[in-house]
Design a protein that fits this description.
With 578 residues, this protein is α+β, with helices and mostly antiparallel strands. The protein is built from 12 helices and 26 strands. It folds into 3 domains: 318 residues, Rossmann fold (3-Layer(aba) Sandwich), CATH 3.40.50.200; 78 residues; 132 residues, Sandwich (Jelly Rolls), CATH 2.60.120. The longest helix has 17 residues. It is an enzyme of class 3 (hydrolase).
Length: 578
């Protein structure tokens, strides 16, 4: 079964940095009582259900007759199946939360009863999650000289103009821009497919903003595919690619989005769209964002069947917080992009910063590579990025554990910069002669349950042996490490590291300052279980002793390593010789 976490193209190795691990969980995350309402949304007023294959609309009405506090608010198609959104009729709900909103949770009596309805195949609360664009402030009135990512003025450029010189401009490639509402008739976005665009925030076919200050989505689209040669604003990295606007964020400042909204957006026209650009994400300082069943299903389906079976490519911005602001992603930003793009009302916008505007550069470069070879699968693209990105122009300005290192396969990797700077020319040349990599193998270790206690300011290691007879993989691509630990308080004081048989040390969970400082929300003990995706070990041989290291850097916190295990993905031999 294709792992959901492998579908997302997390190696955003561009001029800034890389989201080296996607902190998504395959197992349920367990939280202390004091954290429950902060980490899980309690203001959701909808549930999503799918009937059994023989279900009818009459069955929906029959179900609603037994649950009068719900009403049918929407029927929609998702991945070929019919789903129904049932919403609370708030006029019939006497119980309200402290903040005055009505909410649902898994312990709701009607939801518990409804899960036993024989006609219902799937039921999930349509939970809300605050998402926002990953961007900084921007100045106006840009100059074309600001397009340093294109014009080669940097000592170590992306070599985009060199890729253009080879004849590749993104022609024939379709990019879905999932973002805030966008001006689809913008002067600089002549390659926008307006008829295929959609607004999932307002649930209509017009993704254009009514507010002229809503620039984020239009600017992201411009970085990818702004028209070349029209003497206006900017030039997109893949200026001949077709753009499709997928409105999801209602405002520049972000909105609370439901699971079903996000799942439909990332599946929009998956047979047509090659690459999805996602320059937004969750914001919570103390929370860990999880995926619901609908998004999991979407990613798995689109990896198998998207792009006519080659798999859709998803590029996500890493976020501008990291350990300082958001514990949900290992993504400290060291240098911000500064470039020019388009904005609403056919205007220009300069000084764009943040990982929001590194993601569309990566998308544009991938579009150039796909034009050179549209047979590339989503895994082929990841292999190309790893092989053609270079650690040029970056300095080791971080602590000793975040320096450039060579992994066991000889690849230079960095915990914040990934594999380095994306090179469009090298990507295109590599794509032209690329041969599809063989099928990905999967192997999972036994669960190790050491129950090792760590007192204040201490650390402990535990190992898992991967034997040659048990594991068929000899060339790693992705490693999933699932780790569960107890903490006495202040979860952010616990750090987790993974050490491969080759000796490569990877930071899974750094110390999180805000998470650690939240004494109010973390005054009680709890258990934390999470699955971390690692790409730093790409190309290594997994046979040997793997170690997990837990560290507590606090005089008031103790922890216990409960259990951990590995899931390895790769091939039986190096798929790329030479």
């Amino acid at each position: 079964m294709t792992s959901l976490l492998f579908i997302v193209l997390i190696v955003l190795v561009n001029g800034l940095q890389s989201n080296q691990f996607e902190l998504n969980n395959e197992d349920d995350i367990t939280k202390s009582e004091s954290r429950l309402n902060l980490d899980q949304n309690s203001d959701s007023t909808d549930i999503i259900i799918k009937l059994q294959p023989d279900g009818t609309e009459e069955d929906i009405q029959d179900i609603l007759s037994r649950y009068p506090k719900f009403k049918l608010s929407k029927q929609f198609k998702f991945l070929g199946d019919t789903y129904y959104k049932l919403s609370l009729d708030e006029s019939k709900i006497p119980k309200q939360l402290v903040d005055g909103t009505v909410g649902l949770n898994e312990d709701d009596n009607d939801i518990l009863r409804m899960t036993n309805e024989t006609k219902i195949e799937f039921l999930e609360i349509d939970k809300k999650e605050l998402n926002m664009p990953y961007a900084d402030t921007a100045s106006t009135d840009p100059e074309l000289t600001d397009l340093w990512h294109l014009n080669g003025v940097m000592k170590y450029p992306h070599n985009i103009e060199e890729a253009w010189a080879l004849g590749y401009t993104g022609k024939g490639i379709t990019v879905g821009v999932i973002d805030s509402l966008m001006q689809t008739d913008h002067t600089d976005l002549t390659n926008m497919n307006e008829s295929s665009s959609y607004d999932y925030y307002n649930d209509d076919d017009d993704p254009n903003p009514s507010d002229p200050t809503m620039y984020h989505g239009t600017s992201v689209a411009g970085v990818i595919g702004a028209t070349k040669g029209n003497d206006f604003c900017a030039v997109g990295v893949a200026y001949n690619a077709t753009l499709i606007a997928i409105g999801l964020l209602g405002l520049n400042s972000g909105n609370r989005l439901t699971e079903s909204q996000q799942a439909q957006a990332i599946s929009h026209m998956s047979d047509t769209i090659d690459i999805y650009c996602n320059s937004y994400g969750p914001t919570g300082q103390y929370s860990y964002s999880t995926l619901g069943s609908l998004r999991r299903t979407a990613y798995e389906n689109n990896a198998k069947y998207g792009r006519q079976g080659k798999g859709n490519i998803y590029v996500f911005a890493a976020g501008n917080g990291g350990s300082i602001a958001t514990p949900n992603t290992k993504s400290i930003i060291t240098r911000f992009i500064l470039l020019t793009s388009t904005t609403t009302n056919s205007g220009c916008r300069g000084g764009l910063q943040g990982t929001s505007f590194s993601a569309p550069i990566a998308v544009g470069i991938i579009a150039l590579a796909l034009e050179a070879n549209n047979a590339l699968t989503w895994r082929d693209v990841q292999h190309l990025i790893v092989r053609t990105s270079k650690p040029y122009g970056f300095k080791d300005t971080f602590d000793i554990e975040n320096k450039w290192q060579r992994n066991g396969a000889g690849l230079r990797v960095h915990h914040k910069m990934g594999f380095g700077l994306m090179n469009a020319e090298a990507m295109v040349k590599g794509a032209i002669k690329w041969k599809t990599v063989p099928e990905q193998l999967t192997w999972q270790s036994q669960v190790s349950s050491p129950n090792m206690t760590l007192e204040e300011r201490s650390k402990a290691k535990n190992k898992i042996d991967v034997s040659r007879d048990d594991c068929p993989i000899r060339h790693l691509e992705h490693v999933m490490a699932t780790v569960s630990f107890d903490y006495s308080r202040c979860r952010g004081a616990v750090e987790v590291y993974l050490i491969s048989p080759s000796g490569t040390k990877v930071v899974l969970l750094p110390k999180r300052y805000n998470d650690d400082a939240s004494f109010i929300t973390h005054s009680n003990p709890g258990t934390f279980t999470w699955t971390y995706k690692v790409v730093h070990l790409w190309g290594e041989n997994p046979i040997g002793k793997w170690k997990v290291l837990l560290k507590v850097d606090s005089m008031i916190v103790s922890a216990e390593l409960k259990e951990w295990y590995l899931t390895l993905y790769g091939t039986s031999s190096n798929p790329i010789k030479g």
